[in-house]
């Protein structure tokens, strides 16, 4: 205010010395008031307006050297000075306020950017991300206290020189109830990203705007979700590498078993073809049968290792269902040892899309399974029929059937019906391999229990191009 009065006095003195007319004086005083209104407060501008009117009246309007107002123009001058002061002061104050707000928003944006960089560049574990988040928010925004509640771990992490007057229970309630809380200069709000809240954050807000507080909450949600995603990806990678290692070891061990088993089978077959006493023949038969059994188990182990390693390769081409079944039956006939396979498949069936080698693995597994559970001498029926969604192949036996509760579980790896675990040999992998091969073809596999036994069915898609057989 002193500066405003000094400026007004200097202008008045200059005008008196220079003997300028009243119009020039009024304009000079008006400029002084504008300057005071622009750089000072509204009170200072109003006081400067009154002082200018007094100086204008006393020094420049007749009767000079008196405060008598004999002309209405004095009131006009006072009104003009006051209106100018109020208008200019309001405009200046608005501009200053907006400039300050813009500066504060810019500073907040810079802090939010720095916070996002600090959170995104760091790679804390899921367990430590809440602590890192609280420390970064407190440091970047220079807050007295920050607390972060992570709903997954149930822990509250605090940061800042002071202690936030919010209990763990209140922070948990904010997260669970998905509501905001404001008390004693402290704001707490849920941390959510898409779905339900995954935590909450509380802080002394101070000069932090509501928009910045919600932006901090969003960055906190992204940081917590990112840490969880990275943790899950890391675990998945470890599991994948472990599975690959297990599959590779199983594949290697299985191949190591196959070579001696082939030699054992060849030696037993050669000895059986020559003369021998009944006891020796019986022992050689046992050796040959057990070698076959072990070869089957090793082959299943190799197939399962390849499936679990994602190395199952299917090459599908159009094939006649009847020809596919005939090829499998022809392959298995030498080892039937008096058992019968009945084939039911019309020649006019539509072509199916199949890999012959993989198809053979499925049918052989189902045939072996059927003979294993069927009474001696009973036939196994292998059939193919057209269906709306493709070609359905089935293998029916005369066994005891499968309880309803086990019909889905028999396709699980290593699962075997409780009643058969001790009575019949098996690894529990064959049906799992069959299921994976069928699904790789784009089909499905299931089992039905009939009055005469069990019927295993699987479907294969029809060939896109029907080639004449």
Summarize the topology.
Elements: H1 2-18, H2 22-39, H3 42-60, H4 73-121, H5 129-140, E1 146-150, E2 155-159, H6 168-177, E3 181-183, E4 186-192, E5 197-204, H7 210-272, H8 278-308, E6 317-319, H9 321-332, E7 341-344, E8 352-354, H10 356-373, E9 380-387, E10 390-396, H11 430-440, E11 445-450, E12 453-460
Parallel strand pairs: 7-9
Antiparallel strand pairs: 1-2, 1-5, 3-4, 4-5, 6-8, 9-10, 10-12, 11-12
Helix pairs in contact: 1-2, 1-3, 2-3, 2-4, 3-4, 4-5, 4-7, 5-7, 7-8, 8-11, 9-10, 10-11
In words, what does this structure look like?
This protein is an alpha+beta fold and 469 residues long. The protein folds into 4 domains: 2-104, no CATH class; 105-234, GAF domain (Beta-Lactamase, 2-Layer Sandwich); 239-308, Orthogonal Bundle (Helix Hairpins), CATH 1.10.287; 317-460, Histidine kinase-like ATPase, C-terminal domain (Heat Shock Protein 90, 2-Layer Sandwich), CATH 3.30.565.10. The protein is 55% helix and 14% strand. It has helices at 2-18, 22-39, 42-60, 73-121, 129-140, 168-177, 210-272, 278-308, 321-332, 356-373, 430-440, and strands at 146-150, 155-159, 181-183, 186-192, 197-204, 317-319, 341-344, 352-354, 380-387, 390-396, 445-450, 453-460. The strands form 3 sheets. Strands 2-1-5-4-3 form a 5-stranded antiparallel beta sheet. Strand 1 (146-150) and strand 2 (155-159) form a beta hairpin. Helix 7 runs antiparallel to helix 8 (278-308) and helix 10 packs antiparallel against helix 11 (430-440). The protein is rod-shaped. The model has no long low-confidence stretch (mean pLDDT 76).
